[in-house]
Amino acid sequence: MTTMEEQPKIKLGDYIVIQRQKYTKLQKFGNLDATATLGKEQLELKGLLDQPYGATFRMCPKEDLGKSHRGRQRLHALELCTELEMRNIREVLGISQSGEDNRNIKDDGDSQALKSEDIEQLRDECKESTKIIEKIVENSKTFHSKTEYSQEKYLKKKEKKYFEFVQIRQPTIRLITEIYYRQDAEKVMGIRVDTLSQLISYSGVSAFGNYLLYESGSNGLLPAAFLNSIGANTEATMVHMHPGNVPQKQALLALNLPEEQTNRCISVNIYSVLREFYQGSEETSNETEVAEPSSKKQKLNEVEDEGKDEKKEEPLSETVPKPTVQKWQIENRRAVDLMRNKFDSLVIASKEHPANLVKELLPFVKPSRPVVIFSLCKEVLMELYVELKTSSKVTNLHLTSNWLRMYQILPNRTHPEVNMNANSGYLLTGYTLG
Fold this sequence. Notes:
Elements lengths: L14 E6 L2 E6 L6 E4 L2 E4 L11 E13 L2 E11 L7 H5 L22 H10 L3 H10 L9 H15 L2 E5 L3 H12 L8 H11 L6 E6 L5 H10 L6 E6 L7 H5 L4 H4 L2 E5 H10 L1 H7 L5 H20 L14 H15 L4 E4 L5 H7 L8 E6 L2 H14 L2 E10 L3 E2 L6 E2 L6 E10 L2
Parallel strand pairs: 4-6, 8-9, 8-11, 9-10, 11-12
Antiparallel strand pairs: 1-2, 1-7, 3-4, 5-6, 5-7, 12-16, 13-16, 14-15
Helix pairs in contact: 3-4, 10-11, 10-13
């Protein structure tokens, strides 16, 4: 087991995961003046520098920032806790009395004797959340009449609000996926952690081989997951195709991977790289600007200026820079070399209909290699299933749905969670034929 001393240290520029009880937030520790927002609380991050990941810190009130649209805000410094025991708030407060049911409890807003001003004063005076909660319970007219289960919910709600400890965790694919899915599932195409694990498993990605991934908007989650599975200091390489001019790489950056590993993720615009593959690098030098709208006008002007200079046989003006090879052109050439040698698997996760994508990218996959297509729409994969079945280019085809239902497990109270999204898209899988 890894001890705290052996844990990696937090460095400037790292992405970190701040956890307060069950709530997690992804944050960049960009500079010593950086702060993080947790609800109404502002946290100074400078105290994290060179501390080990996994450490727990106490939120120490430092400054009242006044009121905002979120309510009264405070600035907290983070103080490293060397020892922290897990506590049961019910046992700490010594609560033993509870009611049989809640039928006589009325939510009239008058059950708490303490006013909001009194609670704010308690927060200023008490450093421990247990002291605040103890006073709130003592001044509640209905707490001891509630059932034990209702009391537990009440205590958890209050502890969540006043809990004074945070843990700093190292970002992982599971943590990043859960955070993104909770914040806005549409930004990661509704991909849950169980769906992501199936995508990785079916693709056969490993430390060896070359892999082709096309995705059209997962906030960098898919390339991050596949590059993480490839691992550091391995032989594997991945070509990450995308439809835009700039790839989405937030999740990839959040993993804090070594440069050697990130360099083996070759991100290219799909239209640009296909044009270069079929037309050759000499022709693409003048034509790839179609896929790069931001530089189209500049490149056309450079070509015209070069033509004029050749006619006049005059040297280039010092004010006109010579054309340089841009990063996306270098990445295109690296990707084309791998496309000629073909890939060990193909993964497509697209918001658009995947039929044309499969048609264009399938020839770049070696025989007897896995093909995985993800979509939120079942109907488009059904159409593609029939098309691939008819063409006999892919065998062992399976169309599956990812269904996950979370349950609350309690005595005589077992039921699905009230708020959940059970479906997380569909997968079409198979293997290429020679």
